[in-house]
Amino acid sequence: MNEVFTSIAKKSDEHEFYTPVPDGYKPGKTKYVVVFGTVMSGLGKGIFSSALAKLMQDGGLVVAPVKFDGYLNVDAGTLNPYRHGEVFVLDDGTESDMDLGTYERFLDCPLSKENYLTGGKLFSMILNRERKGKYLGRDVQFIPHVTGEIKRFMRELAMLRNADLVFIEVGGTAGDIENAYFIEAMRELAYEEGPGNVCNVALTYLLEPQFLGEQKSKAAQLGIKALLGMGIQPHIIACRSTNPATEKVREKISVFSNVPMERVVGVHDMDSVYLIPDLLEQAGLHRRVAEFLGFTVKDNPIARAQWHEFMASLLHPKKKITIGMTGKYTGLRDSYASILKSLEHAGVASGCSVNIKWIETTAIKDDQAAAEALKDVDGIIVPGGFGKRGSEGKIACIQYAREHNIPYLGLCFGFQMAVLEYARHVCGISKAGSTELDTDCEPVIDILPEQKKIEGLGGNMRLGGRDVEIKSGTKAHAIYGASHVRERFRHRYEVNPDYIAQLEKAGMVFSGKHPEHPIMQILELPKHPFFVGVQFHPEFTSRPLRPNPLYKAFVAAASSPDRRA
Ligand code: GLN
Atom 9, ligand 1: which residue's CA is nearest? Predict the structure, then answer.
């Protein structure tokens, strides 16, 4: 135990320290990499951190990522995806920032609430503790209490995962008010854990104005100065830029920041984010970090080869398909990040690249308009959504896809809309609707609090991983090759059990159900080449080297030569 640690670990209220340390915690056992942003946001800090964490993981280390978001929302559930990107749902039901999706995809490991901390969650934890009198009569202060709780969170994660390395991504950039207390906590963490146990990585940005035609380091210098001013000495500096960082500019940054040249690395724009691990590997970045922290990272030729094979197929597709995607936020790709990634993974598995045609459904009023929108697509997805806008247009597109044998994948809201389309046009329930959209309808899709109560959810959103029982002999069974799977949900409404028999009688097959309750989770139409709807979000469990089976089957159907014949 280092000296600093012994002194701070005092438990009385008679001193200025407040560093709650979980029982059994040994400083130095788990090391920390902390990634800070400078100059501006939007540099792909999450992608950079994930790629570096992956290299460390491939090198044999147990890695646990954690993302800190400074905003005061308790989680991402109430954030508008149009402004903030998609809400990524974890298996335990945590509604998190889309960066957690990047970590899950790169590291191929499920994360949980312990991997995500927002300012809102932090403060609500603190206020709860305060109400319970846990601060021993002290005035609760940003330092040491807020910073102390942040350190506790990090150390609890280290112990929970038995991690060699906790990878901390500090959201925002140095200089923001929102993350200042968090950066301060990281300064304290480095001091307490002792030299060589915390590696600070600063991500920065090189300006390259066209009128100058050269890279300039001034903004980067100022950003790093802001970090230094907060007591954070970076050990590694990663320079984001359009073109590869020049030697000259790296030298300049090295001079101004006390970081040796070999630890100032360039990370320029690449054709694909999946190329970043290779770029970092070539720069030897993971080795520098490991060296600094006293680890050795092993070579892992198998992992590299698998990754390269994936990359080769991604960058050199044999064919191209177009998938139509309906949606409200058609202007912002980030709000559908996981779906786009899942299509990419599935595309690699089928040897094709997937082009997206965005379909704004508010203007689609009839069959003709749907035909026009879908005339050049190989498949169509109706993704998750909330609210009425564009829903009738979605139903028109689904009807067209069903009647014209166009592969269809309905995700959550897209599952519900497929049920309504079938109820109206095949079962003849002309007023079939969802009570989410219309109170004056036949409630084929409805909110069923009694069912939620069985699952202990009350009237809340059904969130997170749940088991799905799959009927044998169905397409879903063939696709998954299993009778039980676990997928992630995020919905409030569902198929009203009163209508199930009628829908089934008319030919709709509910091939995936809740193991005990009448909650319909997968639907399919046996006579259609590929018409599948799922109440869950298979995009949250798709990984580059392990595409989700449903996406894989959908893309395979959309790219099948038979379909085009
Ligand atoms: N709005 C629908 C519900 O709450 C669908 C949700 C979704 O697509 N994620 O059930």
Answer: 384
Q: Which two tokens stand for residue 180?
A: 């200042």
Give the list of residues 6+ apart from residue 453 with CB closer than 8 angstroms, or none: none
Distance from C-alpha of 535 to C-alpha of 346, rounded to nearest angstrom: 20
pLDDT at 111: 97
What total of structural domains would you count in the chain? 2
Task: Please compute the mean of the pLDDT values over residues 191-210 and round it to a whole number.
Answer: 96
Residue 519 pLDDT > 60: yes
Per-residue model confidence as pLDDT tens digits over 79-130: 888 788 899 999 999 999 999 999 999 999 999 999 999 999 999 999 999 9
Domain harbouring 341, CATH code = 3.40.50.880
pLDDT at 328: 62
Helix (H) or strand (E) holding 317: none
> Which is the closest atom of ligand 1 to the Cα of 384?
8
How confident is the model over 338-355, as a mean pLDDT?
A: 96
Which residues, including other chains, have CB under 8 Å from residue 560's CB and lie 6 or more apart?
529
Q: Which one, of 109, 36, 124, lies nearest residue 74 by Cα?
A: 124
State which residues form the domain around 371: 317-558
- The residue whose C-alpha atom lies closest to atom 1 belonging to ligand 1 is 386
Which residue has its alpha carbon closest to ligand 1 atom 7? 384
> What are residue 98's phi and psi, to 5 degrees?
-65, -20
Is the same domain home to 282 and 328? no
Residue 358 sits in the same domain as residue 263? no
pLDDT tens-digit map of 166-184: 999 999 999 899 999 999 9
302 in a structural domain: yes
> Which residues are known catalytic residues?
412, 537, 539
Which amino acid does the sequence have at 362? Answer: T
90 plus 219 within the same structural domain: yes
* Residue 240: per-residue pLDDT: 96
Please give the backbone phi and psi of residue 343, each rounded to the nearest 5 degrees, phi first.
-65, -35
Domain boundary among 307, 329, 364: 307
- Which of 284, 307, 330 is the C-terminal boundary of a domain? 307
Q: Is residue 6 part of a domain?
A: no
- Which residue type is seen at 134? K
Asked if residue 350 and residue 238 are part of one domain, the reply reads no
Which atom of ligand 1 is found nearest the CA of 537? 9
Give the CATH number of the domain where residue 179 resides.
3.40.50.300
Under 8 Å between Cβ of 293 and 59: no
What confidence tens digit (pLDDT) does each residue in 31-53 have?
Answer: 999 999 999 988 989 999 999 99
Closest to 149 in 3D by CA, of 193, 181, 179: 181
Confirm whether 79 is domain-assigned. yes
Q: Name all residues whose Cβ lies below 6 A of ligand 1.
A: 384-386, 412-413, 436, 490-493
Asked if the structure places residue 190 within a domain, the reply is yes
Same-domain pairing of 266 and 367: no
- Do residues 298 and 364 share a domain? no
Integer Cα distance of 195 and 252 in angstroms: 26
